[in-house]
């Protein structure tokens, strides 16, 4: 090993961003392996590599003993005095071992080990770098597709975008620039593997941090995010400064900020709502763009009953329940939406309680005074109805003898004659135009006969 080899290591240090000390340890390990293979020893061999201006020097350490049992690790006192005049039994003597003594096979083995260790060090470096960036948004380009997997080129590595993390409305064309959310970094036999996502809710959070300076400065904070990838997203924002409107800061001038995020996620709809510590107000805001009439919350069961106008019911529920589903995820509450008409109908059709039924069965004596007075008012209409039924019965009894005497058929025929009389004027009216139509030609023929008579007289 000479100075050129040292320059090559320094070049690798710059290109691969691997410290020279790590490369030196790698070379030391490679030389130990090559030394053992060259001298066919399985015993432990201690090798020390020293860097100098002209290159490297390799030293083999041996113990000074009286009787040598392992020539690769031990030497006699006479041999040790040749290398170190102060050597004695029990001391350690270093003997220089030049690379030329290793031979071609040993050099090739050392090369393979060095290359392998450098590759492993490079992979470990990449893994540590991306493992520290979990949760960040990275920019890459679509490299290629394998079956349903998409690979994104992030510069030092190709990240994997699995099918579960792909938005359904995104095409992922070759060489498209996309922003991805870093999920995790894995160690595999082929090196580190980076998994990214395009459907994670935190992707929207990071994109707003890039576009809205108030969020990056901490003035505006995103409290929660609920997302259905490719369709719609709701975010709840709040401000620590009363002078700063959180919704306006996220929307930007003429919607420039939110539009930049929408373009990045391929025109996915984004609703920005105002966060509120009051659960009822927050739930009402989360159902935007629908307006709630009233919100009733139950802290124990974490449920909320929301009443909306009839015209706002479909808007509050959304397409396939999407709006209320996102609102429930955003707030963390179970939301039940009813229209005003449904509430009124439920109140009218409510069945009486068993106690009320028992009181009505027992009679008015057991009812409260208010109910008794109310029932007293209903007595008079009932009596009138009974009198009407009695009068109708008397009339029927009076008509019965007439029916027996044979007057009933005459009474039945009377309406028939009336109908015929009513039909006769209609038939006469229908025949009148016909008569006029027949008489019209006769009126036209009369002048013709007059002209003939005049001609005969002439």
What is this structure, in a nutshell?
With 458 residues, the protein is α+β, with helices and mostly antiparallel strands.
Helix content: 40-55%
- Outline the low-pLDDT stretches: 352-447
CATH architecture of one domain: 2-Layer Sandwich
| Derived structural class | alpha+beta
Widest sheet: strand order? 7-6-5-8-9
Give a short account of the largest sheet.
5 strands, antiparallel
Number of strands: 15
- Rounded to an integer in angstroms, the radius of gyration calculated over CA atoms is 51 Å
CATH class of one domain: Alpha Beta
CATH topology of one domain: N Utilization Substance Protein A, Chain:P, domain 4
Name given to the CATH homologous superfamily of one domain: NusA, N-terminal domain
Shape: elongated
Helix count equals 16
Average pLDDT works out at: 75
Please state the oligomeric state of the protein chains shown: single chain
Could you tell me the strand content as a percent range? 15-25%
Terminal Cα span: 156 Å
Explain the layout of strands and helices.
Elements: H1 3-16, H2 20-39, E1 47-51, E2 56-64, E3 74-75, H3 77-83, E4 92-96, H4 103-131, E5 137-146, E6 149-153, E7 158-161, E8 177-188, E9 191-197, H5 201-211, H6 213-217, E10 220-228, E11 232-239, H7 246-251, H8 256-264, E12 269-274, H9 279-286, E13 294-298, E14 303-308, H10 313-317, H11 322-331, E15 334-339, H12 340-348, H13 354-362, H14 369-377, H15 379-404, H16 407-457
């Amino acid at each position: 090993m000479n100075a050129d080899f040292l320059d090559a290591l320094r070049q690798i240090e710059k290109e691969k961003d691997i410290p020279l000390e790590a490369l030196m340890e790698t070379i030391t390990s490679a030389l130990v392996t090559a030394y053992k293979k060259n001298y066919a020893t399985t015993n432990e061999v201690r090798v020390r590599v020293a860097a100098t201006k002209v290159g490297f020097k390799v030293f083999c350490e041996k113990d000074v003993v009286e009787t040598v049992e392992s020539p690769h690790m031990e030497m006699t006192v006479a041999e040790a005095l040749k290398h170190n005049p102060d050597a004695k039994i029990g001391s350690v003597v270093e003997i220089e071992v030049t690379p030329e003594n290793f031979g071609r096979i040993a050099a090739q083995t050392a090369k393979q080990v060095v290359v392998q260790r450098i590759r492993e060090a490079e992979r470990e470096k990449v893994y540590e770098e991306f493992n520290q960036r979990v949760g960040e948004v990275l920019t890459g380009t679509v490299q290629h597709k394998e079956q349903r997997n998409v690979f994104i080129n992030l510069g030092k590595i190709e990240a994997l975008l699995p099918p579960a993390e792909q938005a359904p409305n995104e095409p992922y064309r070759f060489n498209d620039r996309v922003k991805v959310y870093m999920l995790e970094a894995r160690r595999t036999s082929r090196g580190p593997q980076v998994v990214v996502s395009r459907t994670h809710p935190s992707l929207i959070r990071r994109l707003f941090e890039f576009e809205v300076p108030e969020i990056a400065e901490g003035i505006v904070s995103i409290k929660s995010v609920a997302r259905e990838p490719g369709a719609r997203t709701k975010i709840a924002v709040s401000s620590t400064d009363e002078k700063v409107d959180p919704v306006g800061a996220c929307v930007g001038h003429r919607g420039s900020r939110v539009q930049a995020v929408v373009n990045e996620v391929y025109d996915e709809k984004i609703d920005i709502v105002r966060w509120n510590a009051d659960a009822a107000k927050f739930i009402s805001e989360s159902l935007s763009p629908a307006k709630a009439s009233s919100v009733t919350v139950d802290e124990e069961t974490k449920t909320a009953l929301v009443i909306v106008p009839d015209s706002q019911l479909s808007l509050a529920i959304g397409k396939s329940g999407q709006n209320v589903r996102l609102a429930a995820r955003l707030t963390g509450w179970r939301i039940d939406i009813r229209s005003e008409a449904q509430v009124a109908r439920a109140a009218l059709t409510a069945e009486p309680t068993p106690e009320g039924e028992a009181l009505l069965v027992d009679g008015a004596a057991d009812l409260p005074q208010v109910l008794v007075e109310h029932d007293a008012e209903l007595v008079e209409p009932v009596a009138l109805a009974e009198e009407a039924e009695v009068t109708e019965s008397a009339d029927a009894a009076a008509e019965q003898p007439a029916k027996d005497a044979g007057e009933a058929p005459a009474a039945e025929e009377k309406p028939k004659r009336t109908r015929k009389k009513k039909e006769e004027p209609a038939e006469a009216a229908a025949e009148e135009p016909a008569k006029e139509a027949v008489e019209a030609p006769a009126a036209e023929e009369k002048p013709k006969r007059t002209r003939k008579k005049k001609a005969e007289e002439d």
